[in-house]
Specification:
The protein is built from ten helices and no strands. The protein has 268 residues and is mainly alpha-helical. It has a single domain, classed as Ferritin, CATH 1.20.1260. α1 runs antiparallel to α3 and α5 runs antiparallel to α6.
Length: 268
Protein backbone atom coordinates (compact mmCIF):
# COMPACT_ATOMS: atom_id res chain seq x y z
CA UNK A 1 0.00 0.00 0.00
CA UNK A 2 1.43 3.39 -1.04
CA UNK A 3 1.41 6.45 1.20
CA UNK A 4 -1.44 7.95 -0.84
CA UNK A 5 -3.74 5.18 0.41
CA UNK A 6 -2.66 5.17 4.07
CA UNK A 7 -4.69 7.52 6.32
CA UNK A 8 -2.33 7.63 9.32
CA UNK A 9 0.16 10.46 8.88
CA UNK A 10 2.94 8.70 10.82
CA UNK A 11 2.49 5.56 8.71
CA UNK A 12 2.89 7.74 5.64
CA UNK A 13 6.23 9.02 6.93
CA UNK A 14 7.31 5.51 7.90
CA UNK A 15 6.49 4.08 4.45
CA UNK A 16 7.62 6.90 2.15
CA UNK A 17 11.03 5.39 1.36
CA UNK A 18 9.55 1.97 0.56
CA UNK A 19 6.78 3.49 -1.58
CA UNK A 20 9.29 5.43 -3.65
CA UNK A 21 11.69 2.50 -4.02
CA UNK A 22 8.86 0.24 -5.15
CA UNK A 23 7.88 2.63 -7.94
CA UNK A 24 11.43 3.56 -9.00
CA UNK A 25 12.29 -0.13 -9.30
CA UNK A 26 9.43 -0.68 -11.75
CA UNK A 27 6.39 -1.24 -9.54
CA UNK A 28 3.02 0.20 -10.45
CA UNK A 29 -0.02 1.30 -8.48
CA UNK A 30 -3.30 3.14 -9.15
CA UNK A 31 -3.55 6.76 -8.06
CA UNK A 32 -6.60 7.58 -5.92
CA UNK A 33 -8.81 10.55 -6.72
CA UNK A 34 -7.84 12.03 -3.34
CA UNK A 35 -5.18 10.93 -0.85
CA UNK A 36 -6.34 9.29 2.38
CA UNK A 37 -6.42 11.47 5.51
CA UNK A 38 -6.77 10.83 9.24
CA UNK A 39 -7.95 14.41 9.89
CA UNK A 40 -10.82 16.58 8.69
CA UNK A 41 -10.47 17.90 5.13
CA UNK A 42 -12.17 21.20 4.30
CA UNK A 43 -11.86 23.82 1.60
CA UNK A 44 -9.41 26.41 2.94
CA UNK A 45 -12.13 29.08 2.76
CA UNK A 46 -13.99 27.17 5.50
CA UNK A 47 -11.03 26.90 7.90
CA UNK A 48 -11.31 28.72 11.26
CA UNK A 49 -9.56 32.11 11.69
CA UNK A 50 -5.85 32.08 12.49
CA UNK A 51 -4.24 33.59 15.57
CA UNK A 52 -1.03 35.61 15.69
CA UNK A 53 2.45 34.16 16.06
CA UNK A 54 2.83 35.79 19.47
CA UNK A 55 0.62 32.95 20.72
CA UNK A 56 1.79 29.33 20.75
CA UNK A 57 -1.54 28.40 19.20
CA UNK A 58 -0.81 30.71 16.26
CA UNK A 59 2.60 29.14 15.70
CA UNK A 60 1.18 25.62 16.03
CA UNK A 61 -1.57 26.42 13.53
CA UNK A 62 1.01 27.73 11.06
CA UNK A 63 3.10 24.55 11.46
CA UNK A 64 -0.10 22.52 11.02
CA UNK A 65 -0.81 24.31 7.73
CA UNK A 66 2.80 23.78 6.69
CA UNK A 67 2.57 20.09 7.62
CA UNK A 68 -0.45 19.74 5.34
CA UNK A 69 1.54 21.31 2.50
CA UNK A 70 4.58 19.09 3.11
CA UNK A 71 2.31 16.04 3.25
CA UNK A 72 0.81 16.90 -0.13
CA UNK A 73 4.27 17.59 -1.59
CA UNK A 74 5.40 14.16 -0.40
CA UNK A 75 2.32 12.47 -1.87
CA UNK A 76 2.66 14.38 -5.14
CA UNK A 77 6.18 13.01 -5.49
CA UNK A 78 4.82 9.48 -5.16
CA UNK A 79 2.01 10.31 -7.56
CA UNK A 80 4.46 11.55 -10.21
CA UNK A 81 6.53 8.38 -9.86
CA UNK A 82 3.36 6.33 -10.35
CA UNK A 83 1.98 8.33 -13.29
CA UNK A 84 5.23 8.81 -15.24
CA UNK A 85 6.94 5.41 -15.30
CA UNK A 86 8.65 6.29 -18.59
CA UNK A 87 10.29 9.47 -17.29
CA UNK A 88 14.13 9.42 -17.35
CA UNK A 89 15.45 7.13 -14.64
CA UNK A 90 17.75 9.85 -13.30
CA UNK A 91 14.74 12.12 -12.89
CA UNK A 92 12.85 9.41 -11.02
CA UNK A 93 15.76 8.69 -8.69
CA UNK A 94 16.28 12.37 -7.90
CA UNK A 95 12.54 12.80 -7.37
CA UNK A 96 12.62 9.93 -4.87
CA UNK A 97 15.27 11.78 -2.84
CA UNK A 98 13.22 14.99 -2.93
CA UNK A 99 10.07 13.12 -1.90
CA UNK A 100 11.74 11.40 1.05
CA UNK A 101 13.06 14.81 2.12
CA UNK A 102 9.48 16.15 2.09
CA UNK A 103 8.69 13.37 4.56
CA UNK A 104 11.42 14.68 6.84
CA UNK A 105 9.94 18.17 6.64
CA UNK A 106 6.53 16.76 7.54
CA UNK A 107 7.98 15.05 10.59
CA UNK A 108 9.68 18.29 11.71
CA UNK A 109 6.35 20.10 11.52
CA UNK A 110 4.48 17.42 13.44
CA UNK A 111 7.11 17.38 16.18
CA UNK A 112 7.02 21.17 16.35
CA UNK A 113 3.24 21.15 16.75
CA UNK A 114 3.58 18.67 19.61
CA UNK A 115 6.31 20.74 21.30
CA UNK A 116 3.95 23.72 21.31
CA UNK A 117 1.28 21.70 23.13
CA UNK A 118 -0.98 20.81 20.18
CA UNK A 119 -1.41 17.86 17.84
CA UNK A 120 -2.03 16.91 14.23
CA UNK A 121 -5.76 17.15 13.60
CA UNK A 122 -6.44 20.08 15.93
CA UNK A 123 -7.36 22.00 12.76
CA UNK A 124 -8.75 20.94 9.39
CA UNK A 125 -6.54 20.61 6.32
CA UNK A 126 -7.04 21.05 2.58
CA UNK A 127 -5.87 19.13 -0.50
CA UNK A 128 -5.60 22.05 -2.92
CA UNK A 129 -2.08 21.12 -4.02
CA UNK A 130 -3.15 17.59 -4.91
CA UNK A 131 -6.12 19.01 -6.81
CA UNK A 132 -3.84 21.23 -8.93
CA UNK A 133 -2.52 18.26 -10.91
CA UNK A 134 -4.28 15.64 -13.01
CA UNK A 135 -3.66 12.43 -14.90
CA UNK A 136 -3.79 14.48 -18.13
CA UNK A 137 -0.65 16.45 -17.23
CA UNK A 138 2.43 16.10 -19.37
CA UNK A 139 5.71 15.65 -17.51
CA UNK A 140 6.59 19.30 -18.20
CA UNK A 141 3.19 20.35 -16.87
CA UNK A 142 3.76 18.36 -13.69
CA UNK A 143 7.25 19.75 -13.13
CA UNK A 144 6.05 23.32 -13.65
CA UNK A 145 2.99 22.98 -11.43
CA UNK A 146 4.56 21.12 -8.52
CA UNK A 147 8.23 22.01 -8.41
CA UNK A 148 8.31 25.43 -10.02
CA UNK A 149 4.95 26.99 -9.14
CA UNK A 150 3.77 25.36 -5.91
CA UNK A 151 7.18 24.80 -4.33
CA UNK A 152 8.47 28.07 -5.73
CA UNK A 153 5.56 29.86 -4.06
CA UNK A 154 6.46 27.96 -0.89
CA UNK A 155 9.91 29.59 -0.97
CA UNK A 156 8.28 33.02 -1.14
CA UNK A 157 5.89 32.21 1.70
CA UNK A 158 8.58 30.62 3.87
CA UNK A 159 10.80 33.68 3.76
CA UNK A 160 7.85 35.83 4.82
CA UNK A 161 7.05 33.51 7.74
CA UNK A 162 10.67 33.66 8.90
CA UNK A 163 10.52 37.47 8.90
CA UNK A 164 7.36 37.40 10.99
CA UNK A 165 8.89 34.98 13.50
CA UNK A 166 12.11 36.99 13.84
CA UNK A 167 10.51 39.51 16.17
CA UNK A 168 8.88 37.00 18.52
CA UNK A 169 10.81 35.93 21.62
CA UNK A 170 8.93 32.64 21.99
CA UNK A 171 9.16 31.82 18.29
CA UNK A 172 12.81 30.77 18.02
CA UNK A 173 12.13 27.03 17.90
CA UNK A 174 9.37 27.45 15.34
CA UNK A 175 11.59 29.76 13.30
CA UNK A 176 14.35 27.13 13.30
CA UNK A 177 11.95 24.56 11.85
CA UNK A 178 10.63 26.90 9.16
CA UNK A 179 14.17 28.10 8.39
CA UNK A 180 15.50 24.59 7.89
CA UNK A 181 12.59 23.64 5.65
CA UNK A 182 12.85 26.80 3.57
CA UNK A 183 16.60 26.36 3.09
CA UNK A 184 16.22 22.76 1.93
CA UNK A 185 13.29 23.64 -0.33
CA UNK A 186 15.69 25.69 -2.45
CA UNK A 187 17.18 22.39 -3.61
CA UNK A 188 13.73 20.94 -4.27
CA UNK A 189 12.80 23.88 -6.48
CA UNK A 190 16.17 23.75 -8.22
CA UNK A 191 15.49 20.08 -8.98
CA UNK A 192 12.41 21.26 -10.87
CA UNK A 193 14.29 24.08 -12.61
CA UNK A 194 17.06 21.80 -13.86
CA UNK A 195 14.77 19.00 -14.99
CA UNK A 196 12.35 21.39 -16.65
CA UNK A 197 15.18 22.51 -18.93
CA UNK A 198 16.49 18.97 -19.45
CA UNK A 199 13.04 17.71 -20.52
CA UNK A 200 12.60 20.74 -22.79
CA UNK A 201 15.94 19.91 -24.38
CA UNK A 202 14.95 16.26 -24.85
CA UNK A 203 11.70 17.36 -26.50
CA UNK A 204 13.51 20.03 -28.57
CA UNK A 205 11.59 22.86 -26.91
CA UNK A 206 12.98 26.32 -26.12
CA UNK A 207 12.55 26.47 -22.33
CA UNK A 208 12.67 30.28 -22.23
CA UNK A 209 9.75 30.49 -24.66
CA UNK A 210 7.87 27.56 -23.18
CA UNK A 211 7.80 28.69 -19.53
CA UNK A 212 5.55 31.78 -19.81
CA UNK A 213 3.34 30.06 -22.38
CA UNK A 214 2.89 26.98 -20.23
CA UNK A 215 2.22 29.13 -17.14
CA UNK A 216 -0.54 30.89 -19.04
CA UNK A 217 -2.03 27.65 -20.38
CA UNK A 218 -2.11 26.14 -16.87
CA UNK A 219 -3.32 29.21 -14.95
CA UNK A 220 -6.88 27.85 -14.70
CA UNK A 221 -5.66 25.01 -12.47
CA UNK A 222 -2.99 26.80 -10.43
CA UNK A 223 -3.94 27.75 -6.85
CA UNK A 224 -3.83 31.53 -6.42
CA UNK A 225 -0.71 32.27 -4.37
CA UNK A 226 -0.37 35.93 -3.37
CA UNK A 227 3.05 36.03 -1.69
CA UNK A 228 5.53 38.55 -3.05
CA UNK A 229 8.14 36.85 -5.24
CA UNK A 230 11.45 36.40 -3.42
CA UNK A 231 13.86 37.08 -6.27
CA UNK A 232 17.03 36.07 -4.39
CA UNK A 233 15.67 32.65 -3.39
CA UNK A 234 14.19 32.05 -6.84
CA UNK A 235 17.55 32.76 -8.47
CA UNK A 236 19.26 30.35 -6.07
CA UNK A 237 16.61 27.77 -7.01
CA UNK A 238 17.42 27.94 -10.72
CA UNK A 239 14.94 30.51 -11.99
CA UNK A 240 16.10 32.89 -14.70
CA UNK A 241 15.35 36.62 -14.60
CA UNK A 242 12.85 36.12 -17.43
CA UNK A 243 11.06 33.36 -15.54
CA UNK A 244 10.86 35.52 -12.41
CA UNK A 245 9.32 38.32 -14.48
CA UNK A 246 6.74 35.84 -15.79
CA UNK A 247 5.93 34.77 -12.22
CA UNK A 248 5.61 38.39 -11.11
CA UNK A 249 3.32 39.15 -14.06
CA UNK A 250 1.15 36.16 -13.19
CA UNK A 251 0.97 37.24 -9.53
CA UNK A 252 0.01 40.76 -10.56
CA UNK A 253 -2.76 39.39 -12.77
CA UNK A 254 -4.42 37.52 -9.88
CA UNK A 255 -4.03 40.14 -7.14
CA UNK A 256 -7.27 41.70 -5.91
CA UNK A 257 -7.68 45.32 -7.04
CA UNK A 258 -7.07 46.75 -3.57
CA UNK A 259 -3.72 44.93 -3.32
CA UNK A 260 -2.68 46.17 -6.76
CA UNK A 261 -3.46 49.73 -5.66
CA UNK A 262 -1.47 49.31 -2.43
CA UNK A 263 1.46 47.84 -4.37
CA UNK A 264 1.46 50.70 -6.84
CA UNK A 265 1.29 53.25 -4.02
CA UNK A 266 4.25 51.66 -2.20
CA UNK A 267 6.34 51.84 -5.38
CA UNK A 268 5.73 55.58 -5.61
Amino acid sequence: MLVMDTPDVWEKIKNIQKSCEFLVQGGSAPVPQWPARDVQVLDSKLHPPKKGFSLKEGQARMLHDLASIELQAMELGVRTLAEFPDAPQAFREELMAVTVSEGTHLRLCLEGIHDLGFKWGDWPVHCALWGAVSAEDSLLDRILIVHRYLEGSGLDAGSYLIQRLDGIDDGKHTRKIVGQINFEEIGHVDFGSQWYRKICQLEKIDASVDFPRRMESLRWKLPKRMEKINRDLRLKAGFTEEEILACEAYRESILPSRQKLASATSVR
